[in-house]
Design brief:
50% strand, mainly beta, 10-stranded mixed β-sheet
């Protein structure tokens, strides 16, 4: 009878882990490019909202920069421009993509250099009070590209 008990414990543990709900908000594919301390860096990522309610990203912070701003790129009359945005909507069951040529994070006044291979921690804050941790992998381009 003894061999059955450890097997039962293992099955129950696996079942509870499989049944654990996935978070409604998840950040995937975070990356950045190398940058020099004292200058500005950039951050890209995707926010996935598996929830039934839309979410609104209102702030991002990282210990490696004095300040983080959310920016959007746009093209008008053949001229590309960039402007700060105070909030980014993440639709219910959808996602918000921060990538080259669109939304991106400006890491202002870097406190240290960002070198290839570094992993930059970030924390995203949403209008409903939710906070989600993220990591930006520093490399020479989009991971997997």
């Amino acid at each position: 009878m003894k061999p059955i008990f450890p097997a039962l414990v293992a099955v129950l543990a696996a079942t509870s882990a499989a049944a654990a709900p996935r978070p409604a908000l998840e950040v995937t594919g975070g990356w950045s490019r190398p940058a020099v301390a004292g200058t500005n860096g950039v951050g890209y990522l995707t926010i996935v909202n598996r929830g039934a309610r839309p979410q609104t990203l209102v702030a991002v912070e990282t210990p490696v920069a004095r300040k983080v701003e959310m920016h959007a790129m746009s093209m008008a009359g053949g001229v590309m421009s960039m402007a700060e945005v105070k909030a980014v909507a993440v639709p219910a069951g959808g996602k918000a993509v921060f990538g080259p040529g669109g939304y991106h994070l400006m890491l202002l006044d870097l406190k240290r250099p960002l070198k290839v291979g570094d992993r930059v921690p970030a924390r995203l804050a949403f209008a409903d009070g939710a906070k989600v941790a993220a990591t930006l992998a520093v490399g020479l381009g989009r991971p997997g590209a």
